Amino acid sequence: MTDTQALNVLFLCTHNSARSILAEALLNHMGRGKFKAFSAGSSPKDNQQPNPMALATLQKANISIEGLSSKSWDVFAEPNAPHMDLVITVCDNAAGEVCPYWPGQPATAHWGYADPSAGEGSDDEKMEAFKQTLHLIKRRLDIFTSLPMASLNKMALEKTARDLAKQ
């Protein structure tokens, strides 16, 4: 990891439609070239798409949704996939699953968030759940993105990412 090389971060969830999509878009927005975020799911449904409320929440926050798509984590275990420096699970289901082998053995952490798409209620209440989830992710990413790049070697990266789970 050099000062000029972006740190690749993969956010994982079960379906890759809400929390991991929010985290990918937000880190790419905040990362200022220091970070390159990706997202994937352990078991996205056939023809899975990002949740429309997740996309609307990002757009309301002036965060680009360009290029966001739901995909299986298998695409990041392929030989031509980008090397990941950090893999963060953002839902409890994905955290408990057996992950594929990640080339280069990236640092790992779990940042659990409630599924905003699982709630009942009006559309306004559901949108509020997405907004709150985005806010919670942003709180951790504010700290994470402010760290000096020189301190983000694998051991420090894993400890810092896991410590942020307690925030």
CATH architecture: 3-Layer(aba) Sandwich
- Secondary structure tally: strands: 4
What is the count of DSSP helices, taking H or I runs of 4+ residues? 5
- Seen as an oligomer or otherwise, the chain set is single chain
From the 3D structure, determine the CATH topology.
Answer: Rossmann fold
The value of Rg in angstroms is 15 Å
CATH class: Alpha Beta
Q: How many separate structural domains?
A: 1
- Note the run of SSEs as H and E: EHEHEHEHH
Mind telling me the CATH superfamily name?
Response regulator
Percent range of helical residues: 25-40%
Q: Which segments are poorly predicted (pLDDT under 50) over 5 or more consecutive residues? A: none
Describe the main β-sheet briefly.
Answer: 4 strands, parallel
Keywords:
single chain, 167 residues, alpha/beta, Rossmann fold, 4-stranded parallel β-sheet, 5 helices, 35% helix, 13% strand
Explain the overall architecture.
The chain has 167 residues and is an alpha/beta fold. It has a single domain, classed as Response regulator (Rossmann fold), CATH 3.40.50.2300. It has helices spanning 19-30, 52-60, 92-95, 123-145, 154-164; strands at 7-13, 35-41, 86-89, 107-110. Strand 1, helix 1 (19-30) and strand 2 form a beta-alpha-beta unit.
